[in-house]
Design goal:
The chain has 448 residues and is of the alpha/beta class. 45% of the residues lie in helices and 15% in strands. It has 17 helices and 13 strands. The structure holds uracil (URA). Residues 165, 174, 179-180, 183-184, 207 line the site of uracil.
Length: 448
């Protein structure tokens, strides 16, 4: 086989065979195909697209480029969850314990974040003592004993994706549905769970800006996961404003605990119960999604989810007392409030701008080498739709350095739009893929 011929074939709109895709993926991962040829191939895919069959093969070859976790000996139907990423998204810290409290085994490998705030692993590491690097036996043992473990994804899971994604990032070839699907799904399929629940975000703070694009991505990921024999469901959810009120690692852990105590903001509580409920249903511990949502709601109200959170934290070396005493979590010393410049209604809080401001505080990385400040971030005191008075605090920013705080505040001030009329807000849960349409009544949907 010849790489130039394969690039030419794709450039001319041809369909590659499984062997041809394997040749490209393996050759690039092993180093026999250089960056410049892979870049040309990715650009050809960007313009010409890939068929469903090609996308399945690409995902499979990327998945098989490294280790495939074998969770088969852990009793029960293991359900994983993946969010396409957003600002203030700390749902894993909530839904993992809620689903596990309902009996769903959760064996999750998560990433660190680049940009915005940290990833789930960075958030968990904000808890004093918490370890995200567990040996395989420890990881499995924790899932067996406690029902949940979350660890950092090892370099051995889908190494082809690591190399290809790094190249896509610098060759303007990220935004292609087949490439995004194969990238996300190769890692998820290699992580070994029986089912995957996807939270596909849409809006200004998301990868997919429109609901239509988010739905197309969700449909493709559900299809490709099912082709691999996995149970799949996806929710499409709003990411125009940050989820919840906290953005930044320890701030987000605080908020997650507050949700598990039943004291959290309404939006993140609603979404967490909706997601955890679907995990319970997918894990065959509920008769329907509605029944799963009711069970997840019960686990929240009874405190079973919070108990599971403590057990989970203790099991991975963290201090479970954080569940009672939030002051055990780090919080940066310097703080600055941003006040409303006028009376009115908040018509929007741009998630992307808040994400960038949060990164400036030190809560996110700009390069892989940056060290995250777990105590930095932004706490919103109001959300879209709230009525506010001039001078009222809109948010508080936390950082360890005054210069970072200044930079972050200048950015964050641009995020909030204030108007004279109360805005009509889109529903948080826009729809679903792989199940009946989500009812419009959000209270009923949430089961709370
Ligand atoms: N996240 C991934 O892991 N891969 C993509 O291609 C896009 C988002």
């Amino acid at each position: 086989m010849n790489t130039v011929e394969l690039i030419t074939k794709k450039r001319n709109g041809g369909e590659l065979s499984r062997e041809e895709i394997r040749y490209l993926v393996m050759g690039f991962t092993e180093g026999s195909i250089p960056d410049y040829q892979m870049s040309a191939f990715l650009m050809a895919v960007y313009f010409r697209g890939m068929s469903r069959q090609e996308t399945i093969w690409l995902t499979q070859e990327m998945k098989m480029s490294g280790d495939i976790a074998d969770l088969s000996w852990i009793h029960g139907i293991k359900i994983d969850k993946h969010s396409t990423g957003g600002v203030g998204d700390k749902t894993t810290l909530i839904i993992g314990p809620l689903a596990a409290a309902c009996g769903v085994p959760v064996a999750k490998m998560s990433g660190r974040g680049l940009g915005f705030t940290g990833g789930t692993v960075d958030k968990m590491e904000a808890i004093p003592g918490f370890r995200t690097a567990l040996a395989e036996e420890e990881f499995f043992g924790q899932v067996q004993r406690c029902g949940i473990s979350v660890i950092g994804q090892t370099a051995h899971i889908a190494p082809a994706d690591k190399k290809i994604y790094a190249l896509r990032d610098v060759t303007a070839t990220v935004e292609n549905l087949s490439l995004i699907t194969s990238s996300i799904m190769s890692k998820k399929l290699a992580s070994g769970s029986d089912g995957i629940l996807l939270d596909v975000k849409c809006g200004s703070g998301a990868f997919m800006k429109t609901e239509e694009d988010a739905r197309s991505l969700a449909e493709m990921m559900v299809d490709i996961g099912r082709a691999d024999g996995k149970k799949m469901l996806a929710l499409i959810t709003d990411m125009n404003q940050p989820l919840g009120n906290a953005v930044g690692n320890a701030l987000e852990v605080r908020e997650a605990i507050r949700v598990l105590r039943g004291e959290g903001p309404a939006d993140i509580t609603e979404l967490s119960v909706a997601l955890a409920g679907r995990m319970v249903f997918m894990g065959e511990l509920a008769d329907s999604a509605e029944d799963g949502i009711a069970k997840a709601g019960d686990a929240l109200r009874s405190g079973a989810g919070l108990d599971k959170f403590r057990e989970f934290v203790r099991g991975q070396g963290g201090d479970p007392a954080v569940a009672e005493d939030l002051s055990l979590l780090p919080l940066s010393e310097l703080r600055m409030e941003i006040a409303a410049p006028r009376d009115g209604y908040i018509t929007g809080i741009d998630a992307m701008t808040i994400g960038l401001a949060s990164q400036h505080t030190g809560a996110g990385r700009q390069t892989k080498e940056d060290v995250i400040d777990h105590g930095a971030g932004i706490l919103l005191h109001h959300k879209s739709g709230d009525k506010i008075r001039a001078g009222e605090a809109l948010m508080t920013l936390y950082s360890a350095e005054a210069s970072k705080l200044e930079l972050a505040a200048a950015e964050a001030a641009k995020a909030v739009q204030i108007g004279d009329e109360a805005p009509v807000l889109p529903p948080l849960i826009r729809g679903s893929v792989g199940e009946e349409p989500v009812p419009e009544n959000r209270e009923k949907e949430c089961g709370l």
